[in-house]
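Hi V.,

You were right to ask for the full record rather than a summary. Here it is.
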Amino acid sequence: MAKILVVEDDESLSRMVSEWLVGEHHTVECSYDGADAAEKLKFYEFDMVILDLNLPSQGGIKILREFRGCGKTTPVLILTGQDKIEDKEIGLDSGADDYLTKPFHMKELSARVRAVLRRPASYSGDRLVSRGLELDPGNHTVKVNGNEISLLPKEFQLLEFLMRHPDQVFSADALLNRVWASASDSSIDALTTCVKRLRKKIDVDGSPSFIKTVHGVGYKLFTGE
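Predicted structure:
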């Protein structure tokens, strides 16, 4: 059970989301405008935030950036009707953990909430850690068991994305949409090659691969849990 803040100005949708999550044994609070949400986030602690972008009085991206700027690491799932890859990129780069586009099925919302809440307890700020693998986006460094390794830009981006969503399976198309911004170099072959190179660089002999292939589905960061 988690304490979740739902920030959504459509009261009908907010009520539907709230009732669904309560039915899954979560504790839910609702905000219908940006100013109220910002106040709640300033004074109260939540296990997760579901945040719409288009809000009265204060936009979701501004709320998110200020929230992360204060050092808050609470998981945030963006809920919005904006479905362009550029909009998703802005949201994720501003500190969101995941992005769900309206309209959506409540079961998909549940799956994403579960995935976001499984984020490792060792997550602190922008530093990501899993099984001896450490990624620091700010310094653009990756270490395996304390030893720094060199990654190509796309390898780094793919690894960071997977580490921000541990144990969550993504299809090849989803990864291409999330990590490859340009359609010109976006292909299944490009993804497969990138995964192979990453495994050679980060995997440790005698231990399971950090990037697990889920046959017929896609890839995920395997935390070993």
